[in-house]
UniProtKB/TrEMBL annotation:
Its EC number is 1.13.11.37. Residues 140-168 form the Intradiol ring-cleavage dioxygenases domain. GO terms for molecular function: 4-hydroxycatechol 1,2-dioxygenase activity. This is Hydroxyquinol 1,2-dioxygenase. It is an enzyme of class 1 (oxidoreductase). Keywords: Dioxygenase, Iron, Metal-binding, Oxidoreductase. It comes from the Bacteria. InterPro entries: 1_2-HQD/HQD (IPR039390), Catechol_dOase_N (IPR007535), Intradiol_dOase_C (IPR000627), Intradiol_dOase_core (IPR015889), Intradiol_RC_Dioxygenase (IPR050770). The keyword Transferase does not apply. The gene is npcC. Belongs to the intradiol ring-cleavage dioxygenase family. Its cofactor is Fe(3+).
Amino acid sequence: MQSGSLPSQATSPYFDEARSAEVVNARMSDEADGRLRRVMSVLVKHLHAAIKEIEPTHEEWFSAIRFLTETGQMCTDWRQEYILLSDILGVSMLVDAINHRRPSGATPNTILGPFYVANAPEYANGENICLDGKGEPMVVEGRVTDISGNSIPNAKLEVWQTNDDGFYDVQQKGVQPDSNLRGVFTSDAEGRYWFKSVKPRHYPIPSDGPVGKLLEEMGRHPNRAAHLHFIVSAPGFDPVITHIFTPDCPYLSEDAVFGVKRELIAEFTKIDDLDAAKRVGFSSSYWSVSWDFTLATSGKPILANA
Ligand code: BEZ
Ligand code: FE
């Protein structure tokens, strides 16, 4: 450009509606971190495209700002409303899928959720993690293996679930016994594990904040399909953060956070035989669940479409 002449329309640094994203992205320094440049330029490109498609009024734009402000204000050490927002928009599951592409046959990941607690009580196989005596008794048993079916002894299985009222222990401190329905088990020499608990029920995600209000306004319910959470880990293997779902839950195909995967729906068999119940330490009928975890060796993630 000659000194004194105006920049052409195609390279102008001044804002205009048609080139809005390019104008903003051109302002980024070449010295900015490469990953940050990539992230910000993609975000600006798609954000501007969305705004052009939506054409919000000023009032609509401001109500979006208010929503984001309230979402931040709802966050505490115990409540992460932004993660909840990411969960209900399917973003948490998408980030997880991108980061956990496993070989076929390996147990898939699903959402961690906000109610995991590290260092839960350790139990011997066969013990009962239900401390409040509520709910329908259940026995879960299975094996932890590698992709070829070889046993993985000494695998750590961390399990947690809600009580029969649909709350985690940490949501009801002083109401439920501490560490109710959570515990850590270790697979035996054959990779086997087994424990007692109660059949999980569906429950709502925390919906008393802006995310709950948004769900309601979108005509969506806050319920999660009934599940047990697990983290299964062993040295040399990629730890799996996952669930087991009950097959009879009415919310299976409409889980509020998109956490259900077909491969994670288990069979729950009702055992009505009292002698069998007594043999496992129950005095009434119970649910029996057989579930194996298959771990992939740790290493580089499998590339998409590879
Ligand atoms: C859960 O399964 O515990 C959960 C997951 C996402 C949001 C809220 C709860
Ligand atoms: Fe949960």
